[in-house]
Design a protein that fits this description.
The protein is an alpha+beta fold and 378 residues long. It has helices spanning 83-88, 92-102, 111-118, 123-130, 140-152, 165-178, 188-191, 260-271, 278-303, 308-319, 328-334; strands at residues 14-19, 23-28, 37-41, 45-48, 70-71, 79-80, 179-183, 198-203, 211-212, 218-222, 235-239, 250-251, 342-344, 355-358, 364-366.
Length: 378
């Protein structure tokens, strides 16, 4: 893992601004070099991804559990990786509810793990969580059922302040819009296929203000299983490439390799907006060109006429990879074979690194395009 000297939260590289069409967002205050750390953020709240994850990961720091973990002396369900994590424990309402959640044959929604953890926060932290932006809205009937289930796990002497169906609805809305996944290690121990999944979810107050772009300019790294890092659940965001002063910092909320329609469908369903980034505008034009070409081909088939020149022209418009806006060069340079994102290591002595690190599998290798990129010359 590379050294990360930047403090948690926004630093001199970023400032928070309000834009009419984007809401709250973070923009660069100066030219940012490739690989430069733009943000380190500490979670406001962490919670298990599911009951099935509890035997595999520490309930405090969410590192992989050792061979002989330390059980929680209260609930006897949660496990901890060290005496330090055991002493810090886990959310009190979740601790109280876990024995009931795992007993019997009932299947409980994973949302309860979040709500029990959120309602365990100190009052000031809970208010900060509720101040996060959200787009999602849920049917009153669904929230009523969820709140009723939640209430059944909280005894009268442990009912938190601000406990209400309205607050529960607001919390769920904040979680659906702002939560981040802490991925599992990419090996067959956890899923049999070596594909990353979620060990836990977290709410990160500053990271939640980073907006979406289908070709993002920063990449998130997490080093949850780093043994020599106390704040192992902090998120580190590094620049893919040079970012000009005043440019908004963006991540992708969905996999960047997903096709246009899939991205738009996912963004609308999960975040409530239609993306109109530069990439999406380009791909819409491709779709329009493709539809026009298909209509022309259908018309030719119906009339029995052939017009090879017209067909070739249409295909060239669709597939011309020499177009300077063609985004596939992004995938070639910043995508790892595993499906993760590649970003340069942080600059050393002001010089941009020639090495690229994957934020998913962790592989580090030489950037073959380094010497041909003028943005790497400082």
């Amino acid at each position: 893992m590379a050294n990360q000297p930047n403090p948690a939260g926004p630093n001199a590289l970023l400032r928070l601004v309000e834009k009419p069409d984007r809401g709250r967002c973070l923009v660069a205050t100066r030219l940012i070099k490739p690989g430069e750390v733009v943000l380190v953020d500490t979670p406001l709240l962490l919670y298990p991804s599911s009951l099935a994850s509890l035997p595999l990961f520490c309930s405090r720091c969410f590192r992989c559990l050792p061979g002989q973990p330390f059980p929680c002396p209260t609930c006897h369900v949660a496990r901890f990786c060290s005496r330090r994590c055991l002493s810090l424990s886990h959310p009190r309402l979740l601790c109280h509810a876990l024995p009931s959640l795992i007993s019997g044959n009932a299947t409980w929604p994973d949302d309860l793990l979040f709500l029990l953890s959120a309602y365990s926060l100190p009052g000031s932290s809970l208010l900060r969580l509720l101040s996060l932006h959200s787009n999602s809205r849920f049917p009153d009937e669904s929230i009523q059922i969820l709140h009723s289930q939640l209430s059944s796990f909280i005894p009268p002497n442990m009912v938190p302040l601000n406990f209400s169906q309205e607050t529960t609805s607001s919390l769920i809305s904040k979680e659906k819009t702002n939560s981040f996944s802490l991925i599992t290690p990419m090996n067959t121990k956890f899923d049999g296929r070596g594909v990353a999944g979620s060990r836990a979810f977290g709410l990160y107050p500053w990271a939640s203000m980073i907006n979406h772009d289908c070709l993002p300019n920063v990449c998130r790294f997490d080093y949850v299983d780093e043994l020599n890092q106390e704040n192992n659940t902090d998120f580190t965001f590094r620049a893919f490439h040079q970012i000009k002063e005043g440019t908004e910092i963006c991540i992708s909320y969905v996999g960047v390799t997903r096709p246009y329609r899939d991205r738009q469908r996912s963004l609308m369903k999960n975040y409530g907006f239609k993306c109109e980034c530069d990439r999406c505008k380009i791909e819409v034009k491709w779709k329009e060109s493709q539809r026009k070409l298909e209509d022309e081909e259908e018309e030719e088939e119906e009339t029995g006429e052939e017009n090879e020149e017209q067909v070739v022209e249409g295909e060239g418009e669709e597939l011309d990879s020499d177009d300077e806006d063609f985004p596939h060069a992004y995938f070639i340079r910043y995508m790892c074979d595993c499906g993760g994102n590649l970003a340069p290591l942080p600059p050393s002595d002001g010089l941009v690194s020639e090495m690229m690190e994957c934020n998913c599998c962790g592989d580090v290798g030489m950037d073959t395009s380094y010497h041909s990129d003028p943005n790497n010359k400082f």
